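Our consortium's second objective concerns turning raw sequence data into structural hypotheses that experimental partners can test. To show how far this objective has progressed, the report includes one record in full. It was chosen at random from the queue rather than selected for favorable results. The single chain below, 132 residues long, was entered without modification.
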Amino acid sequence: MCSNPTMSRQARTADRPPRPNLPASLPPPPEPLATGPTTLLPELPQGARCVGWVRIPLTLTSAPRAYLYAVPGGVPLWLVRLPSQDGAPRWCRLSRTEPVRWALASGLPKVARAALALLARAGHATSPPEGA
């Protein structure tokens, strides 16, 4: 520690303004992947209600949510939102067992059990009442 003020060291940035840590030339901003209207949800049958969702493993880095809809008097419906070739997301219908098969093929039994539990809940919600 130096007690003499003439012997102290000045700060390195005292004589020059701070510079941002950016490259010399910035790339142009990205353009939107798709133009046009996007649907929030596809057309659902009358009276359909969402039972729940489960993440389905598609790849190592992608696990979108698959939503299960109970359809009165019909088969439960799985919907998943996937990117299309132009990059815009689109809704796809899955078979009733596809999320379970994907989870089992990926070695995720908890996800498969969750999908089966949702299917069981949807089955009880859509079964006709006794005596009807």
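The partners drew two points from this record. The longest strand covers residues 49-55. Strands lie at 49-55, 65-70, 77-83, 89-94. Both points have been shared with the crystallography group to help prioritize constructs.
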